[in-house]
Amino acid sequence: MTEGAIIDARDVSLTFQTNDGPVHALRDVTLSVEKGDFVSFIGPSGCGKTTFLRVMADLEQPTSGAVLVNGVSPEEARKARAYGYVFQAAGLYPWRTIGGNIRLPLEIMGYDRPVQAKRVKEVLELVDLAGFEKKYPWQLSGGMQQRASIARALAFDADILLMDEPFGALDEIVRDHLNEQLLALWARTQKTICFVTHSIPEAVYLSTKIVVMSPRPGRITDVIESPLPKERPLDIRDTPEFLEIAHRVREGLRAGHAYD
Amino acid sequence: MRHVLPVLTVVAVIVAIWYAAAIWLNAQWALDTAARQDRTLGAAELVLDTWSQEKPKLPAPHQVVTELWQTTVEKNVTSKRSLVYHAWVTLSATLLGFGMGTALGFALAVGIVYIRVMDMSVMPWVIASQTIPILAIAPMIIVVLNAMGLSGLLPKAMISMYLSFFPVVVGMVKGLRSPSRMMRDQMRTWNATRGQEFLRLRLPMSMPYLFASLKIAMAASLVGAIVGELPTGAVAGLGARLLAGSYYGQTIQIWSALFMAAAVAAAAVGLIGIVQRATLKRMGMG
């Protein structure tokens, strides 16, 4: 066990039984994530990156191996509301305002009304959506909706943020902007973030640690500790250091494909 | 306003066909009557006669309209001859049965969605219940309930309920299951209880399905109430009017009762439509 690790996975394997036979979504995944890390999981579809995130969130059960989140099982961590989870789609409820959507987890967790109002205001500012509290989801653009869903995941102030391709459906320009904002948010809140993506620039730009995965069976092929500084303007992506890491990620992805 | 002309055209065509059919169906009676009186009818006389008989095979539109006018506007609504009175008798049973049917359908749907045993076992019975002709089972329900000392409104409402719970079960099962996997996972990450998930996610998501079901249930409920009035020899209600009309060959009365039933159904379903539009619009789902 790594001392002080927020997430500690040991030999995690997960096999789905399907009609076409067993699918090895994860095999022998071992990884630890330190407090304050920004970890990206990158790989082609079917490499198990989302599945691994869902295992951490107690949305899937590993077939073998063990995962500790905050030193306890994923189930206990989920019940202790240790993480916020951002899904691929914003998944806002159309019948609730933006404020109402962000309040939803707080209502479920039984926060007092004044606390709810305060939290909603805080996280809306955090994602740069102040003043949109009373708007309905359909009145917002796709990028703003996804920001609102991030605000919702932040509302109950969990230390861990699990994000499953949150910007996958957005265009490049909006994505750049949101990546910048996400880094600023991470710096301000000191959260530990696990981020699933299939974009190499996005992974390199955001992460302190990049986990390269490959499919059939889903496994980790490379873990890259990023030497980039915490402070990252968008044009850092043109520096040699950045390109070098991106190259290594690409190599890792290619190596994973050599099997088939 | 673009739709007014096509609609009026269709109505005009229907009315024209109706008048023509009235001539065709009622001509024989007019000719027979004339023959018995040793009279011969000219074409114009024949046509006018077929449109003004007392007990025609098919009453002409204006006869039905006149009857409707006389039995609604010109009669006191408490009078036993007022069609409004009879419509209200049927409508009250319809609404009671609709309420009971909706409640039963809703309860069954919740059970089917949440309880695995019910999911596996209840639906076939629900479907089987609707394959039985209601006309066959209605008299038995009435007789059995009568034996238990229940008469009047409630037996009719039971038949309405029997017809109206079905669309609600089917619609609500689908509606309560409409939240996506992702939305349910989301609730799970917040460690929401089943009750919280139901009230905050499943129930609001099912609203479009609920309203669609309620419209069908309301129409079915009215049919149920009318059918419930037929076998009892009920003295009041649209069903009673239909039955009495057919005993005495009062076709005009039958047709006006039919039109009243259609109007009541349209009004009730339309009312649900208004509530639906307002609710879904408010919920951002309209």
Automatic annotation (TrEMBL), chain B:
<feature type="transmembrane region" description="Helical">
    <location>
        <begin position="85"/>
        <end position="115"/>
    </location>
</feature>
<protein>
    <submittedName>
        <fullName>NitT/TauT family transport system permease protein</fullName>
    </submittedName>
</protein>
<feature type="transmembrane region" description="Helical">
    <location>
        <begin position="252"/>
        <end position="275"/>
    </location>
</feature>
<dbReference type="InterPro" id="IPR035906">
    <property type="entry name" value="MetI-like_sf"/>
</dbReference>
<feature type="transmembrane region" description="Helical">
    <location>
        <begin position="209"/>
        <end position="232"/>
    </location>
</feature>
<feature type="transmembrane region" description="Helical">
    <location>
        <begin position="157"/>
        <end position="176"/>
    </location>
</feature>
<keyword id="KW-1133">Transmembrane helix</keyword>
<keyword id="KW-0472">Membrane</keyword>
<keyword id="KW-0813">Transport</keyword>
<comment type="similarity">
    <text>Belongs to the binding-protein-dependent transport system permease family.</text>
</comment>
<keyword id="KW-1003">Cell membrane</keyword>
<feature type="transmembrane region" description="Helical">
    <location>
        <begin position="7"/>
        <end position="27"/>
    </location>
</feature>
<dbReference type="Pfam" id="PF00528">
    <property type="entry name" value="BPD_transp_1"/>
</dbReference>
<feature type="domain" description="ABC transmembrane type-1">
    <location>
        <begin position="83"/>
        <end position="276"/>
    </location>
</feature>
<feature type="transmembrane region" description="Helical">
    <location>
        <begin position="122"/>
        <end position="145"/>
    </location>
</feature>
<dbReference type="InterPro" id="IPR000515">
    <property type="entry name" value="MetI-like"/>
</dbReference>
<dbReference type="GO" id="GO:0055085">
    <property type="term" value="P:transmembrane transport"/>
</dbReference>
<keyword id="KW-0812">Transmembrane</keyword>
<dbReference type="GO" id="GO:0005886">
    <property type="term" value="C:plasma membrane"/>
</dbReference>
